[in-house]
Amino acid sequence: MSWVSWAHDVAAEKLAESLPRRWSHVQGVAKRARELKDTPGVDAELVEVAALLHDVGYAPDLAVVSFHPVDGARYLQSIDAPGRVVHMVAYHSAARQDAEVLGLEHLLDAYEDELSPERDALWWADMTTGPDGQTFTFQERMAEVKERYGAEHPVSRAIDRSWDDRLAAVERTEARRDH
Fold it and tell me: Could you tell me which residue ranges the HD domain spans (predicted)?
């Protein structure tokens, strides 16, 4: 079985029934990741595996610390997922800034933010995919998230705090795609 098939099965088991809308989002993020298959310098298969697993920590039976990047990374470690995938899930889409807003940044100390083209690509795929799997621009997606959560919610505050980092990852990935 390929890593992509394995990741699909793991994510489907944890999200398809309990969180169908989240599962739609995850499938859309994986679809975006597949668009990178011909992008120089990007391991598109690794990005797709991480895309399929990036929100697994939302699964109700995995919520331990109630911070989905860490809950997901911990679960993936427990089932012997590849190390890079574990770290990419832990740090996906500005998780460090999200954790800081929540006072949970210490939970990320066990993981490494690899600052790679694959990390940027995962952020890009996540931050250009809507809640139902539809493709959005970065600006549309961030506006949608902030509207859904409300201006004072920690998620919205974290977006404001990490806007430049998020946008930079998106722009780097789009520049790689254009070459």
Answer: 22-99
